[in-house]
Amino acid sequence: MPLQKLQFLPGFFRRGTSYSDAGRWFEGQWVRFRDKYPEKMGGWQQYTTETFGGICRRIRQFASLAGIAYTAVGTSTKMYVETSGTLTDITPIRATSTNLTNPMASAAGSSIITVTDSTHGAQVGDVVVIAQATGFDDITAAELNIEATILTTADANTFTYQCNGTGTSGISTQGGTGVDIDYLITPGSFGYPIGAGWGALTWDSALVTRHWGDPANLAAAYGQGKITQWTAEPYGEDLIFHPRYGSLYYWDATSPTARGALFSTLGGHADAPTTVIKTIVSPKSRHVITFGCNIITAGNFDPMLVRWSDNETVADFTATTTNSAGAQRLTRGSTIITAIPTREIILVFTDTSLYAMQWIGGAYVFSLDLIAEHSSIAGFNAAAVEHDTVYWLGYDGFHSYDGSVSNLDCEVEDFILNDIDFEYADKITAGKTTSFDEIIWFYVSKDSTDTEPDKYVIYNTRGKIWYYGSLARTCWYDNQYSNLPLASGTDGYLYSHEIGFDDGSVNPPVAISSYIESEPFELGNGDKFSFITRIIHDITFRLRDDSTSASQQADITLKVSDYPGQAILDSTATTATRTNKMSVEEYTTYTDLRLRGRQCKVRCGSDTLGSSWRLGVPRLEMREDGRK
To answer: What is the pTM of this model?
Structure first.
């Protein structure tokens, strides 16, 4: 009897109909393509031994002169530096109140403490560190003196937080005569309210002019209401960091447990911006370049202004005839969105255009050339660089720059764009996995239950193919000190990926479900029914030292029907679909079966611990079986 090869083109394809797309893979979960053949992707394990606060938005690695590897971790509430799996909180302090006299009040049967501190300037969600308070109302000092999140701010002089104890009767004017409070900086917010509305900002905000009856315009308030995003730029062995629309801070590796210092406290400081959207250290000239920042003369914020420091002088932004500090304003667009460096240039994205910034030396120091108009980027972290080519996701699709701007040919573009919830576009995060030539974007889908990224789409730059699936990751970073990418989960941990084949977020690990499924293809010429009697398998199983199992298997499912669209993709009508599922273990050569139809779909996958499969070219043994 004749054999029919089950051979499909690599990548997922979602452009045509089920019949026109015959010979293509339709969908899958946690699979990639190597040398044109699909395989299960690697698993993950916890990288950090403790959790971080908030949702991670930024990961950046660097090293000290002593060879100590650090990872900067910027979250919705804090900035950390990680080494050897341990997190150190370096979030700067915005303000400190000392020696407050009896500023606390408890409530009967409650753990909520009300604190009175005149003009504290804090917002709901800010983090405070309480110290030196004495116990009262059956709440101990240790239960009061904690790091806590502000729950409410009834007015400019009071706030509440939750302590670790419970009040008995409720007493006011307590806490002792030497209470100290550190207020950490406000980096942003979890969510993404946009536009204008009641409750946006505070009354009589210094950021905008408001009259009675006027709603607040968040766009005019320079980042108010936008989610937290961080810059984290190594400067030698040290770190420059700041939240979007925040001030610049400096972390010194020689004092690794110290919090970040404001630029205005550094030696040689001169006119450093106090409000900045994004910062990059020039890879060629070592200038600190700020994108969207204060005008040096008036101090007003200009979202289209680019300023840079004197080279090798981190905090000197005053331009003189004897240094190379300077500034230039972009003209196309209303605000800078982000910037991303390559080896030779820095791409600067505004809300409407794209610029290339290049160090040229001399009196002008940098050139800023407009290279594309009517160009968009979906979010602050929606671009990644591989092999000096920049890839990004815009509101209209996927693009690249390798000397010129190109639209990427994406065979799943309509499907992905329709799946993205663009209300949360600023949470889109891009990364790369160099060892597999992949660019990956995580995004919030319309199916998301927590408005955090829950799905991904991958572009394989070598094969120029696409594949996608589901995984909750809020940031992805190609580990420069190993071949294991780092990613952040919504559970407060960093994870090393491509370790084993299982989900190591729990102990013991659990199996990762992965699969790939094809479009229907014709059996024979499709004019007659075919009777399938045997499948000859072509699957390999990979074993690695970090695999949790030496016994692996994959399941192959064949689905047959008579006509295109005949309930194959309709889960509510299963009578037209007949399936035969078989477990394929190592060294299984073939499986006998009985299936009859004009067309067939194939699905391969596994949900067993330690299994990692790669599908080759299986073959079907079959014979003609009439026209009816």
So the answer is: 0.90
